[in-house]
Write a structure and sequence with these properties.
about 250 residues; mainly alpha; 11 helices; about 65% helix; about 0% strand; oxidoreductase; Pyrroloquinoline-quinone synthase
Length: about 250
């Protein structure tokens, strides 16, 4: 029998399925962006129209990136069944047939806020930091092991509550927000649980070692940080200290 080397670090046993699930969900409890001050201002009716426009315009960068990161993920997948499942995410955002898709529904929101559609889709007015943050997510999904890339999507576990809060808060608090422009969030109430259920099952089945499990939990932290950082830069540019960088969208004076 080999002697035990006291200097050799102990090998951590994998978490149980229940422990793994709890570790993933605890990330949302700690750092999902529903806790961000900008989120609370937005949903609480504390922003003016220009600030809401800035949020919608910058968030378009993220919406536009989602099908690109999913396409990048699929380009590395050899499992046909996984590709058949995952492609629905691209269809959800880009549309398919008569279904316009989430990006079109987001543009209906920016249209309703009085933003020029060509200006929004050009992303010329987005904050430079917003675009860097969003592209970091695309790179992460392109480069990380497949199970870790899938895990980064698990912030969708926490999304339905924020969508319900957004619909109720914005309709109640902003006279310039109409019911029709909330279609994106209403559709995500059914899409996000479907996607997160599949992704969570996949991650639990394919993250076998403790190291893989911890990398998946870290991926959820990373994605929460991506969402949080987007609100950080919006708050800095448009709320306090309200320092809009050169070339970025400048709201009209009230």
């Amino acid at each position: 029998m080999d002697e035990i080397n006291p200097r050799r670090p102990a090998v951590s046993a994998p978490m149980s399925v229940e422990e793994f699930d709890a570790a993933i969900r605890s990330v949302g409890t700690e750092r999902y962006h529903d806790k961000h001050v900008f989120h609370k201002l937005l949903h609480g009716g504390k922003l003016n129209k220009g600030q809401v426009q800035a949020w919608a315009l910058n968030r378009y960068c993220y919406q536009e990136a989602v099908p690109r990161k999913d396409a990048a993920f699929m380009s590395r997948v050899h499992d046909r069944a996984l590709r058949r499942e995952w492609i629905s995410r691209i269809h959800d955002h880009d549309g398919l047939g008569d279904e316009p898709g989430g990006i079109e529904r987001w543009l209906i929101l920016t249209d309703g806020l009085g933003l020029d559609r060509d200006y929004v889709t050009s992303m010329r007015g987005a904050l430079p930091a917003t675009r860097h943050i969003v592209e970091s997510y695309v790179r992460f999904v392109r480069e990380q092991p497949l199970v870790v890339a899938v895990a980064s999507s698990l912030t969708e576990l926490f999304a339905p509550s924020i969508h319900r809060e957004r619909i109720a808060g914005m309709l109640e608090n902003y006279e310039f927000i109409g019911d029709g422009v909330m279609a994106y969030f209403r559709r995500r109430l059914s899409q996000a649980p479907r996607d997160s259920d599949f992704a969570l099952c996949y991650v639990k089945a394919n993250a076998i070692t403790r190291a893989e499990q911890e990398a998946c939990v870290d991926a959820v932290r990373f994605k929460c940080n991506v969402l949080w950082a987007q609100l950080d830069v919006l708050n800095h540019a448009y709320v306090t200290p309200a320092l809009v960088p050169p070339g970025a969208f400048v709201p009209e004076k009230d």
